[in-house]
UniProtKB/TrEMBL annotation:
GO cellular component: bacterial-type flagellum filament cap
Native source species: Cupriavidus basilensis OR16
Keyword Disulfide bond: no
Domain Flagellar hook-associated protein 2 C-terminal, first and last residues per copy: 83-293
Protein name according to UniProt: Flagellar filament capping protein
Localisation per UniProt entry: Bacterial flagellum
Keywords: Bacterial flagellum, Cell projection, Cilium, Flagellum
Pfam family, one: FliD_C
Chloroplast is among the record's keywords: no
Amino acid sequence: GTNNTLTGIRDAINASNSGVTASIVNDGGSTPYRMVLTSNTTGAKSSMRVSVDSNGAGDPSTIAGLLAYDPAGTKAMKQNIEALDAKLTINGIDVSSPTNSVQGAAPGLTLNLLSKGDSTVTAVTDTGTMAAAVQSFVTAYNTLQSTAAKLSAFDKNNKGTQSPLLGDATLRTIQNQLRSVFNTPQTGTSDARLVNLTQIGISFKADGSMGLDTAKLNKALATNRTGVAQLFSGADGKSGYGNQLTEIVKSFSATRGALTTATEGLNTNLKELDSAYTRTSAGIDATMSRYRAHVPAV
């Protein structure tokens, strides 16, 4: 049925999903309960117009008379906050925004408007973050190399101790592919002058680890930040050391990839060894039982 109470009207408005939220407030007066309509969006286009499909417009004793609101006409309800766009001027250009968070007006920046007034915004290139990312890349590679060296080492001074992956073909393949990638100049960058790691200060030492000349890296970032980024990410989505390393990881970890195949092979060997141990143990137990049967009780 129809519920023309303030609560019923509020609930009907909220259930209509009409872009506004209705709420009831108590102002502490003699007739304390008031309904407040708030637009769910901001900006001039969110200006509200309330019409009631009923007779009695203009008559405060009717629903239509109480709720009708048209910014350009009947205003039975009181407007507390006008729907407006944010207005600002950037370098002499007038800009408007439906919210106080302005995006796109200044390339790469989001301006959060807090109050009326003049502000000076200075944008500088942040090379520190990129330098830290390159350092992390070098550190990660060196950790990989160090781990591989330990797992494939042969210690002739310790009774010829062999590490678990000494002579492992899969490990050699991974290392060879990584070296091949890093020794291949990149062709998918927008700047042909920046195509290899040595140009940004990364070099290879005699032990296979990477070294980083931070001064050379910082100079490259200061003069060609985009080129440095594309050296890792590429300009075509395919080239770049980062993309190529991702493809190597995918190929090795795929269903029939080298790592997956090697892991499955090791697991198979472990199962076979376990079965052989079980058979051998059972044979020993059977032999001992026969011996015991032939030993006279003392």
